[in-house]
Design a protein that fits this description.
Elements (H helix, E strand, L loop, with lengths): L1 H18 L4 E14 L15 E12 L3 E5 L14 E3 L4 E4 L4 H6 L8 E5 L18 E5 H9 L11 E4 L3 E2 L6 E5 L8 E7 L3 E5 L7 H5 L10 H18 L2 E3 L4 H5 L10
Parallel strand pairs: 3-6, 6-7, 7-8, 12-13
Antiparallel strand pairs: 1-2, 1-5, 2-3, 4-5, 9-10, 10-11, 11-12
Length: 270
C-alpha cells in the first residue's frame, strides 16, 4: 500500500513538473531608438540610390516562466535622450535618436535592470549594444566569434562587468526549446539571431541585422556595410530554412513599417 502511495506521489510530481515545463510566456517589443538615413542604397546596393529611409531599432524583453527575464539587444545609447535633435553618424549618413531610456521603458512594465537575468546581443554594433553597461548583474550571452571581433576593434563596443556566456554556433539556451540562439554570421563575424517559441503566437525569429529591410529579405540582398557577403547569403538561407521548418515569422529589427505594425510594450506577445 505504501509503495502505491509513493508511486502516486511520484506521478503527481512528474505531472506538475510537466505542467511547469519551461516556456516563454511574454515577449515585449520595446522602442530602443530610431534612425534616419539619407541614402537607403548603403544597405541595398544599387537600389533606391539617394532615397531617404527611417530605421526602427527595437529591444525585446522576454519572460521565461522558470528562468526569468532575458533582454535581447539594448539599442542606441540612452545618452541620446538628452539630445532631442539626435546625433549624426557620418559613416552611415544616419542621424540616431532616442526618446526614452531603456530603464524608463522597463519601469513601465514593473521591471528593473537588476531583474534582467540574461542579456543576449545579436552583435556589437553600437545601435544594438548602447546600454549593455546598464545591466551589470545579467549574464551576457553572445557568440564567441563576436566577442573576439569586438575585442579587436580600436574602440571597444562596451566594457562589461557581466559574467560572460560565450557560445559557438546554435544553442538551445535553456534546454527546453523555448529560446534558441542561431548563428547567423556575415553582417559581423559572430552575428546571431534568436528563435523564440510562443504558445499562442507561434515561433518568431528576431533577425538582429542578418537582414535590414523586408525588401532586402525578399530579394536576398546583402547590405554594403557588411563583413562577409557569402556568409550573409548563407545565413539568410539558413533563416529561410528555419522559418519553413518551424512555420515561424521573421521580425526584421530595422524594418520600420513592420515594426510599426507590431504591438509594443506594455502590450506583449504570448
Amino acid at each position: 500500500m505504501r509503495t502505491v502511495f509513493w508511486a502516486l506521489n511520484l506521478i503527481l510530481v512528474v505531472l506538475a513538473t510537466s505542467a511547469r515545463a519551461g516556456e516563454v510566456d511574454r515577449l515585449y517589443v520595446i522602442d530602443c531608438g530610431w534612425a534616419h538615413a539619407a541614402d537607403q542604397s548603403l544597405w541595398s546596393p544599387g537600389v533606391n540610390v539617394g532615397v531617404p529611409i527611417d530605421f526602427s531599432d527595437n529591444c525585446y524583453l522576454i519572460h521565461h516562466n522558470t528562468e526569468g527575464y532575458l533582454l535581447w539587444d539594448t539599442g542606441i545609447t540612452d545618452r541620446l535622450v538628452a539630445v532631442p535633435d539626435g546625433i549624426n553618424v557620418p559613416a552611415l549618413s544616419q542621424t540616431w535618436h532616442r526618446s526614452q531610456t531603456l530603464a524608463a521603458a522597463l519601469a513601465t512594465l514593473g521591471v528593473k535592470p537588476a531583474d534582467v537575468r540574461y542579456l543576449a546581443i545579436s552583435h556589437v554594433h553600437p545601435d544594438h549594444v548602447g546600454n549593455v553597461e546598464e545591466f551589470p548583474d545579467a549574464i551576457l550571452i553572445m557568440q564567441k566569434a563576436e566577442w573576439e571581433y569586438g575585442q579587436k576593434l580600436p574602440l571597444k563596443p562596451f566594457s562589461p562587468k557581466n559574467k560572460l556566456e560565450l557560445i559557438e554556433g546554435d544553442k538551445d539556451l535553456f534546454g527546453d526549446g523555448s529560446l534558441t540562439m542561431l548563428s547567423t554570421p556575415g553582417h559581423t563575424p559572430g552575428h546571431q539571431s534568436l528563435l523564440v517559441r510562443l504558445k499562442k503566437t507561434g515561433d518568431v525569429v528576431l533577425s538582429g541585422d542578418a537582414v535590414h529591410f523586408q525588401s532586402n529579405w525578399d530579394d536576398r540582398r546583402v547590405p554594403g556595410f557588411n563583413a562577409d557577403k557569402a556568409q550573409s547569403t548563407a545565413s539568410m538561407e539558413k533563416l529561410a530554412h528555419v522559418l519553413a521548418n518551424k512555420h515561424a515569422q521573421l521580425w526584421i529589427n530595422h524594418d520600420k513599417p513592420s515594426s510599426d505594425a507590431r504591438r509594443h510594450a506594455p502590450e506583449f506577445y504570448d
